[in-house]
Amino acid sequence: MRDHATLEQHIVLANLENMNAEFIHMELPQSDRIKRLNAIAIRQMQHSPPGR
Q1: Domains in the chain: how many in total?
Q2: Half-sphere exposure of 46 (CA within 13 A, CB side)
């Protein structure tokens, strides 16, 4: 994925990795982490500039 990702996608992915680390530190169950990370990814991608 990283080989073909746009700059915006790289930024979103880095944000998700950081959020996941924080959620793990908070001891959230994996199922909750996945739901939250998915919602965050969708929200961030919707707010990124199109076609770049």
Answers
A1: 1
A2: 6
Number of Cβ atoms within 10 Å of the Cβ of 38: 11
Question: pTM of the full predicted structure?
Answer: 0.81
Q: Is residue 39 included in any domain, yes or no?
A: yes
Write the pLDDT tens digit of every residue in 1-52: 557 889 999 999 999 999 999 999 999 999 999 999 999 999 999 987 665 5
Please tell me the distance from the alpha carbon of residue 12 to that of residue 20, in angstroms, as a whole number: 12
Residue 52 within a domain: no
Between CA 32 and CA 9 the distance in angstroms is 22
Does 12 map to a domain? Answer: yes
